[in-house]
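ligand=iron/sulfur cluster
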Amino acid sequence: MRKIRLLRLPMAVFLFVLILLIPVQLMVENPMLLLERFIPGAGWFEIILIALYGAIVAYKMQDPSKVQLWRRYTWLAFSILFFSQLILGLFGFEKFLMTGKLHLPVPMMILAGPIYRGHLSVMSILFVSTLVLSGPAWCSHLCYFGAIDSISSTGKTRRLPIRNKWALKSTVLLLVIAGAIVLRWMKVPALTATLLAIGFGVIGLGLILLVSRKEGRMVHCTAYCPIGTIVNLTHFVNPFRLTIDQNSCTDCMACTSKCKYDALNRTDIAARKPGLTCTLCGDCLSSCHAGSLQYRFPGLSTRSARNLYLLITISLHAATMALARI
Ligand code: SF4
Ligand code: SF4
Ligand code: SF4
């Protein structure tokens, strides 16, 4: 009976990935699935493969103690796939590109790009859709850049909160918005704007390699990236939450060192609520001896809320794996 129960979520993910990808294969004129571009008809095989991948990840991640490992490596695999296709595309293998219209793979461009150009991009629309469907999962499963911060911060996590985090985050966000408006208003050439964006990305990479690695937590994502700040501030658009149970939590602080997003500090635990930088990644769940960390969704039990969250997030991750290209 338990075995059958464990298969429910993987099967649901398998079906949901099919539901997401079959219309893409049937309706989009230019093949979006990579294999279809090389061998007509092979896109169907790719859909089955990706759905199976989603099912396996779901099967493993049902166990809270396996979430951290599986999330880290599947997220990294997503990032490697994304960047290797970009590099192959840049070297002239056009089939690895989506539109071939290059944009900088720096998340900040999701915000600054549309402001500078005056119209939305495919990436911005994709970003907003995932915000609505899965809340902050963009910053724990879907962003090609965040996976690098995640890998860099695998060391021992510093327990003290990141100092002046919100002052830094808000300043960077406002500077990016203001900078993009000024560049547009002054009709600054695209090349100059691109160079500025590259500079922003290089500073981010520096933070990842030097600070996140030293601190053992994702300093780039929690204190610098403006898209992460938007994800934090708009968490209310999605009903999923992580809560700390009022009665069972013993303030032992064991969960603090599991959170790479600086969302389980002493003040957060005292308030019985993870900080705004929580991405619902689920890494902390297994660290709590009292089972106090729980997913919530209106009208559902904590178990069903978590399963629903895994269903949506893993399916989106798998589907994006098949589609995310530049
Ligand atoms: S904070 Fe920025 S870089 Fe990090 S995962 Fe989110 S969007 Fe990506
Ligand atoms: S509080 Fe838990 S779920 Fe939220 S970001 Fe930290 S580890 Fe992930
Ligand atoms: S590990 Fe559990 S009991 Fe300990 S502080 Fe965190 S939520 Fe509370």
